[in-house]
Design a protein that fits this description.
The structure is a single chain. By secondary structure, this protein is of the alpha+beta class. It has 1 helix and 7 strands, in the order βββββββα. Strand 3 and strand 4 form a beta hairpin. It is extended and about 55 Å long.
């Protein structure tokens, strides 16, 4: 994993948090898998955004990926009672396939 927002390509304010006394710090980050680094097209910290209720500034990372279209599934997907699964089952049914899909997207 790599904190992509710490690169020289990040634009905008040099802080992501400002307390009530005006003290500023860069405490928020965006971590990505290193294989996705070449797909990043823009990184910036947005200055004050209308509607942002947080005292943290948002980090925007634009990623250019060609995601293949998934064919329509005609069967009803399996209903999973996620609350009844242990950590191993959740990893097997959700985390592992998701991470594999991300790596496959990055390799294209």
């Amino acid at each position: 994993m790599q904190c992509i927002d710490l690169s020289n390509h990040c634009s905008g304010p040099t802080y992501t948090f400002c307390d009530s006394r005006g003290n500023k710090s860069y405490i928020d980050h965006c971590a990505i898998q290193s294989v996705l680094k070449d797909y990043i097209t823009d990184i910036c910290v947005w200055p004050k955004v209308t509607g942002n209720r947080s005292d943290h500034l948002p980090i925007c990372v634009k990623v250019d990926v060609d995601v293949p279209r998934i064919s329509t599934v005609t069967r009803r997907p399996e209903q999973i009672a996620w609350g009844k699964l242990d950590d191993h089952e959740i990893k097997k049914r959700y985390t592992d396939p998701l991470e594999e899909s991300i790596v496959n997207i990055a390799m294209k």
